[in-house]
Structure formats: C-alpha cells, structure tokens
Amino acid sequence: RDMNSGSPLGMGWTQATINNGSRSSSATSYLATEFMSRPNLHVVIGAQVLSINSTRANEFKSAQFVQNGKIMSVTARKELILSAGSIGTPHILLHSGIGNSSALKSLGITPLHHLPSVGQNMTDHVALSLEFVVNSTATRDTAQRNATLAAQQLAEWNASHTGPLVDTVMSQIGWFRVPNASLAGFPDASAGPNTPHYEFLISNGYMAPRADNTNGMSIAMAVVSPHSRGSVTLNSSDPLASPLINPNLLGEQVDRIVAREAVRAALRFVAAPAWKGYIITPLGVNASSTDAEIDTYARNGAATVYHPSGTASMSPVGADWGVVDPDLKVKGLKGLRVIDLSVTVSRYMTPMRLSIDTKHCSRTSRPPILRQLRTSSGSGAQI
Where are the beta strands (DSSP E) in the chain? Predict the structure, then answer.
C-alpha cells in the first residue's frame, strides 16, 4: 500500500526517489564540480571543527578548525550556523564551553555559558532482527559468498541498471501498532492511532554472511516511537577525541514491551501458510520462546539505526530546559544557531519524519534568518 497515504499502517513495497539509482549524500551535494565552482560557496575539505569561540560577551561568531595539522579560524559577519548533526553538534558546543558548567570544569574545560541540556535527550531508533534458514539459493547470500557472481551483478548494474542490484536490501516494509492492552499504564509515544509503534524491514538474505553456507531471510524490527533517552557527553578535553555516546537503547520498559511485541508479530507473520516449504527453521527465538527469553534476545541484539536526534533540543523561549529557542538560536547567546536534527524533541521519529524535519529546518528557517539579518543591517546584508 501507499506509505505516503497518511495512514501508513500495513505492509508495502519500499518507496524511494533515487536520481539515476545513486543515493544522494553530502559529497554529491557539495563536492561535485558544479557546487565547488560556485563563487558564493567555499567548502573546506579534510577539516574538523575544534570549537566555536566567543567574539564578545554572550556572542559566538568565530569557529576554530584544524586542517592538515594547522589550526585556523573563521569569523562570521552576522551569524554562525552549526549543522554538525546530533552527535557532532553537542560535541562542538561542549568543547566550546557551552553546556553543563560542572561537567565541563571536571574535564578542565572553561565553562562560558551554562546550558545543561546540551548533549542530553538523545533519541534513536532501536533495531533487532530475526533470521530464518530458507529453501532457496535465490537470495543475496549466494552473491556474498561468490566474488565472481557479485562482480557480474555489479557490472550488469553499471552497464544497464538491471539485474539483482535493482532492488534495495530491504524491499518490503511494514508499520504496525502494539495492542492497547499491552501498553496499559504507559503513555502512547506515537503521533496518533494511525501511526506505528514499530516497523518491519524484510530482506532477501541474512544480515551478515554465515559460515554454514545456508541461504536465509531476515526481518529487522525497529521501535519507531522510543521513550528511552540517552546522551552525548565528553570524556576528554581534547576536541579531536571521540565523544561518549550512550543511546540508552531499550532503557525504558515501554520500549522493551514494544520490542517484544514486534518479535512476537514477526514470528506470527512467518507462521502463515504462504511460507510453508520456504522457511526451514528460525535462528534464535521462536514461537515457543518465553517473554523473558525474547527480552534477553532483544537486549543482546539491540542495535542503533543511526537516526540520533534531540541532543540540542528546542524549547519555548524562557524555558529552563532545552538548547535552542524556536528561532533556532542557542539560548542566551547571540550569533549562533543550530539547524540539524539535534533540535527535535518529539518522541515519534520515523525515517520519513527525519527526512521531512531536515527539509523543514533548511527551508522554513532560512526566510526568518534572512529577514532578521536584513533588518539588522539593511537589505542585501552579506551572510
């Protein structure tokens, strides 16, 4: 069924708009010749931002970065826009002295602006998977074990955009809700009765190659409206050191219930008569597994879907929590805005929502920013 109908519950084919069969990325959007040659865009390659620095009291408009071992700085005429993502944005803010003052002091970082919510409220989708041995050799496992066959399939795709590589790894997806009785006593984190608690992603093959040379099918399950909250913090005053990322997957009981119900639903799905003769045996839990066994399986197999958000969350003006105001300006500061998915707060997060929110930030925040800058210095202000 149409996943964009406004009522996505049910099963359907994965829908995507992919230009010429190639996925877009930061590289295709910024590093292609037509972009690099623009006179009003300067892309610095192979560099990492170290910190955002204060230019005057409560104003942060200068960024320090390192490239090829050389430390350099840039200063904005009007504003800096930080778009380093839900991991990079809090990492940079904290190393800039913007965050929980006591935590920064303990690491030897001079606190410049007390904002305890920086790096907190991290939300991420949690996924687990079930795998099944199948009676078929027409799965992607065969090519994964055969380098010659894999090369032939890639050559066919490059030559004519045909063959097995036309399909995505997960061509069918489904969106489902947990029965109301299972969530009795818990708030519903979904956006409403027509929106899902969990997702199925069905793959014609194992998640990773197996040594037993069997062929398989996988069902990945994602909790798409998680209650659990994690954090991005520091373990070092070195801005080149990796941050501490704690997604706290399945940290809340309600998320564990949703994960368990998703596993049960997947096992019921593969028990349908249509699969008879195709599915040989499940790997891992099965229909007779207890709730405790499924919960243990989920805890041991839980993984991120790499959809982090919320670590620089938006809150109302004057609120004692959050990192940015509704205009995306960092609370209490001038010259600095955050425009990425770290500003989101909602518990209901799907990949589609993430995509829409990204477009929302880029499209709807730009006009008010331009208006404010032009008001401050007249029309035609340089940014």
Answer: 10-13, 47-56, 59-67, 70-75, 80-82, 98-99, 113-114, 126-134, 170-176, 198-203, 216-223, 231-233, 244-246, 279-283, 303-304, 336-338
CA distance 311 to 341: 8
Residue 68, helix vs strand vs coil: coil
What tokens were used for 94?
A: 């904290």
How far apart, in whole angstroms, are the C-alpha atoms of residue 304 and residue 64?
Answer: 31
Residue with the larger pLDDT of the pair 382 and 177:
177
Evaluate whether the domain defined by 44-122+309-377 bears CATH number 3.20.20.70: no
Task: Give, to the nearest 10 degrees, the angle between helix 291-301 and helix 253-270.
Answer: 100
Q: Which pLDDT score, from 0 to 100, does residue 25 have?
A: 84
Would you call 338 helix, strand, or coil by DSSP? strand
Which pLDDT score, from 0 to 100, does residue 377 have?
A: 43
Q: Is the pTM of this model over 0.70?
A: yes
Q: Which amino acid is at 100?
A: N
What span, in angstroms and rounded, lies between the C-alpha atoms of 225 and 202?
19
Angle at which helices 351-364 and 366-377 cross, to 10°: 20
- The domain defined by 10-23+124-304 folds into Glucose Oxidase; domain 3 (3.30.560)
Assign 169 a pLDDT band (cuts: 50, 70, 90). Answer: confident
CATH 3.50.50.60 intervals, the chain: 44-122+309-377
Q: What's the pLDDT score for residue 373?
A: 53
